[in-house]
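Next comes one such specimen:
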Amino acid sequence: MNTVTLETQVLDLVATTAKLDRALLTPDLTVEELGLDSLDVLRLTYAIEKHFRISLAAYSHTDVTSLTRLIEILQHETSSRPATSA
């Protein structure tokens, strides 16, 4: 998956899930800078899993320290999953 596309999807999901202004979001923002608590991170994780059809069970909520880190995790998870046949 293209990094820009992935980044855009993540930022859109964060904005929608956390009810934040999308125009103010950049990948370098940390969880603290976003004002997200652990419950918000869990909600975001669920939204990400549902959207990308992956499991992030191998990662703790403390693994997601910034949007950049979340994007890195998603790049790894989406590139390492087996291709599905149509």
